[in-house]
Amino acid sequence: MGRKPNDSESTSNTSLILLLVVLSSCALVYLFLSVFLTPSWEFYPIHVEPLELLEEDAAAGEKNGACCRGIDNMELWGNAVKWGSDFKFNSSEECCKACKAMCSGNDGPCLCDSWVFCGNRKACGSKFGECWLKKQKDTLAPQRQDLGQKVIWTSGLIFGKGEGIVGLETEYGTLHIKLFPDCAPHSVTYILELLTLRHCAGCQFYRAESRGHSWDSEGNHIKNAPLGPPFALIQGTLEPQGIAFNKIPTEVCPIIRRGSVAWIGSGPEFFISLANHQEWKNAYTVFGSVLPEDMEIAEKIAQLPTTSDVWNNINVTVLKKPVPLSIQRIKKSNGDLNGM
Length: 340
What we know:
By secondary structure, the chain is α+β, with helices and mostly antiparallel strands. The protein has helices spanning 7-11, 13-37, 51-63, 92-101, 121-124, 185-195, 295-302, and strands at 71-72, 74-76, 79-82, 114-118, 131-135, 144-147, 153-157, 165-170, 173-179, 204-209, 233-237, 260-263, 269-273, 286-290, 306-311, 314-324, 326-330. The strands form 3 sheets. A 10-stranded antiparallel sheet has the order 15-16-10-11-13-12-14-9-8-17, with helices on one face. Strands 1-7-4-5-3 form a 5-stranded antiparallel sheet, with helices on one face. The longest helix has 25 residues, at 13-37. InterPro entries: Cyclophilin-like_dom_sf, Cyclophilin-type_PPIase_dom.
């Protein structure tokens, strides 16, 4: 995966090379002293999980709904469906799972779509363990009561079937994306903040690479085919002009699948994958997934005219004309995803 270079990177290359030369020299000296002057030297092999096991672990976690994360020092408001004074747990994960249990999607709308937990024994005092299950008036605009280091609560959102879907609107169609607040709460909070803006000037797709002859139409890798380039993705930025961007912390990083929407590093650059990329292992925070019926729009963008470029020694193809995008509210959708 290549990150789009910026001007500041090129001006610092010379000093970086000099620094690397100095560090390499120091490392060689240290290695010499360690090997030849230390009486005994043991080598401990690093255990690396086989790719097959990594895939099985990730898939098992996703199928079992293992993601249950929230944001510390934040209190969400809303109508209580379970009063925390009479409903207590030992961890925020248990509180989250209790909310999920009321949002199975089998009996209409979710009875619970947000939760608030007090997990700091010292700060919470008698409130320690309280788990408040709540219902928002608008899941795409949750009521935030308070935020900051002094807030003792941890809060999270749960999106039921057909809920928590936003649209990336382009001239080629709208990509409907199911958000994953239980796996990437910080990422989803940022996306919901973008929804409050009138526009997203500067948000765009600027890189497009097809599946080529390496992946089939369902995203499966073709045996013995190269793993890129092209890398089967469309890449862009979700940073509106004139608004300062705060880096997003690394969250759940499952195996990238066809339709996965993930950050590059800590954002705001992101990509939509057109294929299953087991070879990337658990490298990227996935905060959503494109609904299957909209993947043809992503494929269309990947086929637009491009020019070749090299980013950090990686061959990429850049759109001759970037594709502007905006983020739109989607109240309800018949299509949905059960997980990542």
